Structures are given as C-alpha cells and as structure tokens.
Amino acid sequence: MSSITRTKSYITANTGEGDSINYEVSNEITNEVVSPFHDIPLKTPVDDIFNMVVEIPRWTNAKFEISKAAAWNPIVQDTTSDKKLRYVKNCFPYHGYIHNYGAFPQTWEDPKKKIDGGDIISNDKIDRKADPEKEAGGDNDPLDVLEIGSTVASTGQVKQVKVLGALALLDEGEIDWKIIAIDVKDPLHKELNDIGDVEKYCPGLLKATKEWFRIYKIPDGKPENKFALFGKPQNKRHALKIIEDAHGYWETLFEQRPPPEAISLVSQKSKNEQPPESDTQTEAKAPSSEDFNPKWYFTGSAEEEKKFNFNRYNIYV
Question: Does domain 37-313 have CATH number 3.90.80.10?
Fold first, then answer.
C-alpha cells in the first residue's frame, strides 16, 4: 500500500502497511527521492526561519524517526531491543507526544562534541563548574525540534518554523537539545519571537514540556530524565548558536569518506555514491495488540499526591 501527500514542493511518499516494520515515509521532489537528513536545506531565504521535517505528529504515540543508516534516510518507526515497534506511553495527563516533533535537516549532534553554545553561556554568566552535565556529547542524531503551533502536522511534512528557544535534555547520559519553534503559518507566530513570549502567550506550555520529557520513559522501566543548564529554557540567541554548531558538525560529517558506521550519506548531494551492500532493514516482530496499550500511566509518587487535600473528596490516606 502506498500514498502520496504534497507539501509545497516536497512530496511525502508512504510505502508499506501502517503499524508494521515495513512502513516508511520518504521525501521526494520533482519525482526524485531526497534525503530528509542531507538534501532538504536547513535554511530558508528568510533570516531565522528554518525547514523542519516532522517525524511524530502531536498527540500520536508511534516513535518515528529519520533513519540514519538506511539509504536516502527514510522516516521509519523505531524498534525496541526485542524488535517490537516502539510507542511512547501515555503519561497522565498527557496523550502521546505533546508537540509536533521532528528534526532540522542538515544538522547533526556529534557524540564526540558538546553543543552548548559555549560563548553565549559565558556571556550569560552561567557557572560551568556548577553544571558539569552539559559537557556530555551529542546524541548522534539530527537536531530535534518541538513545533508548538496549533495545527497537528503529518509525518514527513516539511514545515518552515521560527526558532524561539531551546531546552537541554540529558537523555541516558547524552545531551539532547530540543529546539522550540513555531510554524510561520500559525496565527500566533507574529506574537512569539523569543522564549519569554512562549510563557506570555502559551502559559504553562514550557512547564508541561519539561515535565513530559522528565517522565516519558518511566513507564518503560527507565529512570526519569534530567536536564542540563539547570533545566532552564534557553533564549532564541542561544538556540540559533546551537543550530549553527549542529549544522557545522553535519557539514563535517557529510565530507567524511568512508562515512561513520551506521550513517548513510546516500542522497542527491552524493548521487554517485552507492548504498553499502550491508544496508538492509532490521527484522522485527509483527505488531500485535500488546505492542501499544493506550492506557494512562501514572508516574507521580504517592508523596506528591498527599500534598493535595484528599479529604475534601472524602478520600482518606
């Protein structure tokens, strides 16, 4: 089964059955497949407006991501260690991902380098010694984007977004920047120009964002995530420096021959290069009703609940 959806000059082509290991979303332009990792430009003609590739629409659970290893880097659903399709659990009171989640093309978080916009951190007088976690390297992926607009996007969609700020997540020991942005077509985009505007016009969103990323892996038996830079959302100036760094690391990556293990550079930009012979799809178990359970998971502690006045509801603890 296949379907095609047009997004401006890009086409998203879906192949395979949904909820299966064979399902892929690829990007095309002028009837030629393109790599969302390498071919779609990061920058637009407008300053501070960037292209974003949507991987996971808001309020959905399937963990889609750009495949670094597969030729042309299609968007595929991630799998667990036991080769089942990966879904994020519903952590009360949230449902799935709370943003349109995706990545900036032509960016890469180098695991051997820290991406912290160090000169800006120094200018803002943040004590490096007090926050050693930010020395962690990148997570070996394109730079993540949280699009906070009101429209639910679709997997593979290319959006033009305005950058507002950033949040430094520490995900299993790796620094994993989340760039906060808004679709330039969103009614609020003219009001939102920096991270402070998000709190003004979308009160509670930044707090919910941090809380969601703190707890979302707990239902899978993992500890809560932590944050670098004291968990403080960073401003637009800092976010733009992070994007600049990640784009520079991608440029270095793209020039490497042979490429690093498990990263495919096959793209229109390197059209004469052939996919490696070992570039095969990982086998996975067929999906079943056990792969995804839509129930809510309650991650708060009993002690936290006792802070509320349960007796007003005739509940005694």
Answer: yes
